[in-house]
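Archive entry. Fields below.
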Amino acid sequence: MSTPVIQIKQLVRTFNTTDAVNGLDLTVQPGRCYGLFGRNGAGKTTTIKCLLDLLKPTGGKVELFGMNPAKHEVATRSRLAYVPDQLGFYPWMSALDHFQHLASFRKLWNLQLQTDLLDQFHLDPNQNINSMSKGQKMQVALIGALCPEPELLILDEPTSGLDPLIRREFIRTVIGAYQDADPENRTVFVSTHLITEFEGLIDEFTIMDQGRGLVTMQTDEARAQYKRVVAVFRETQEAPDLPGIMDCQIEGREMELWVEGGETHIRNWAEQLGCESLETHAMTLEEIFLTIVKQKEKQHAATAH
Amino acid sequence: MFIEIHFQSGKPTYLQIVDQVKTAVASGRLREGDALLGIRPLAERLRINRNTVAKAYTELERQGVVATQAGKGCFIAESASPFNNEVRERMLLEAIDAAIVEAHHLQVTDEAFLDAVQKRLQLYAKKKQETNATDDVESREAKR
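PREDICTED_STRUCTURE:
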């Protein structure tokens, strides 16, 4: 059993009276592409900052490569690269200056990759970074993260605010230039609310809401479990009291059910009632996310009364 | 190589790739010796995890649809003939299922449905006969 690249146990991080993170567990094995999904304010960035020792956990523990990042700063940081959501560069630096600056902190720097990616993104290495567009700055940040050939790539909201072409290019580069170069030893950890973008890349994910982990699952398993069942009856029916129903919308004789794992029982129920038509659809990762978060909100609202 | 991934089909991504390659072979779009796109370029093109593509290619090789040549890549194997019964049968059943669903929506009875199928088969048989007859006449004319 290999050492997890990331291990988070019952993480808590409080700011004054707010629990930004309130009991998060997750484990990332080497070679995986792991997604941390959640709305704005769910606690994703705070979680990442605790991983990187930019914030100290209030409770619980985090480990990178089996080590405490606070106690083993260099040992952990040297094996990873981080692309934050708020990019910052020294205002007088060109892309080349920036890379030389970063390379000075690293044991290894793949100069060929730097050249190839600058070419691929059509960036002028001598251009001042602050005069570049947002998308170009992100590309500079990505090159800076990939050239040290890290074992772990941490991305925090990487494609937020970027145009569709740049977003696609970004993901292609993570898959090709990063992941493919050493698939078993390269791990990607991406936190985002733009789930559709990363749907193809992610093989496992945790959905986070209000500081807590709601669901952790393999992507293929999620797509097999979560379904949308649409039934048309001869006359209006009430929603059944069956396990697995997350949400139900009724419009006249049509009923739409969002289910987790209870598909067969629901189909049987509908057929027994003599439904006129019955269709099952799988959901995209984003739809699964929305359904889970919506259900949590409803439960929350119910207990509040 | 045109492959399309549908994330809301409920089918694992690697299996979608496997099935689409097999269908392409069965329909003749891919032939023995044709090269498949490399793992990295296909993963980049589809914007999916490269391990998913690797898994699909491993499965295709296991099923004898493709063969890997060290250093050169993946190629459609000799044994993967266009006349792959399993795939052809499945494609046919999918088409039949679609027709049955349509008939049901249109409230056509099973008997009327089968009757319609018979009539169409007869129509095509007749057309084929007429085409053959014309071909015979034309070839006889050509020989004169």
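CURATOR_NOTE: Strands of chain B lie at 66-69, 73-76.
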